[in-house]
Amino acid sequence: MTNEIRAIFNRIAPVYDQLNDWLSLGQHRIWKEMAVKWSAAKPGDTCLDLCCGSGDLALRLARRVGAMGHVYGVDFSPNLLETAKERSQSHYPQPAITWVEADVLDLPFDDNQFDAATMGYGLRNVTDISRSLKELYRVLKPGAKAAILDFHRPSNPQLRTFQQWYLDGFVVPVANHLGLKEEYAYISPSLDRFPIGTEQVELARQVGFAVATHYPIVNGMMGVLVVSKF
């Protein structure tokens, strides 16, 4: 399954940002900024962005930590990492980001290494959510926070119907037009499998996070899980 998901993200890398814009009606930038703020990253911090994709959250973290800080962007898709690297090279001054090809279930970092972390639209796609959260807990310093942003199935039946209509009637046809129908058809089943907010909080507490809060946004169609390690 991991290899299949990696292959999907390698294939969609060239149009990943464009499709995210369409998928979120351009709002994903606002939600990502919220996640960075909830991570409590500050100037001089060493930060981690998991499932970094084309680098949106990592670049935002880099602006927040400044020249004295450093960001590690991790993804298992080499194509997306190459896109992220190219984007970062177009910035001036150069952001302090190290791009790392790795599996979030087995991070190549020391214990207690990071001051803050983010993950955008990645937790839903990992093969073992508990293990991913456990690895995140391991590499965070005591006192550090992480903010995990993702799509969700809303509890409201009307909103669920609207979300499914939007996915079936807009997102998949757009992806089909770009020759990526199969790659984006995975979104709906991934949402069905994804634990709801209260379940995510419980999973986070089980792996050791002392504080875990899930904030629904966009009428529950999106959410941010904020966890703290003490």
Detailed description of the structure:
The chain has 230 residues and is an alpha/beta fold. It is 46% helix and 21% strand. The mean pLDDT is 91. The chain has a seven-stranded mixed β-sheet, sandwiched between helices. The protein has helices spanning 2-12, 16-23, 28-38, 56-65, 78-89, 129-139, 157-177, 181-185, 187-193, 197-206; strands spanning 46-50, 70-75, 97-101, 114-120, 140-151, 211-217, 222-228. α3 crosses α4.
Question: What is the gist of this entry?
Answer:
This protein is of the alpha/beta class and 230 residues long. Helix content is 46%, strand content 21%. The mean pLDDT is 91.
Q: What global shape is seen?
A: globular
Number of strands: 7
- Average pLDDT value? 91
Number of helices: 10
Low-confidence region ranges: none
Trace the largest sheet across and list its strands: 3-2-1-4-5-7-6
Helix content: 40-55%
> What is the rounded distance between the termini?
33 Å
Helix and strand element order? HHHEHEHEEHEHHHHEE
Strand content: 15-25%
Structural class: alpha/beta
> Mind describing the biggest β-sheet?
7 strands, mixed
Radius of gyration using CA atoms only = 17 Å
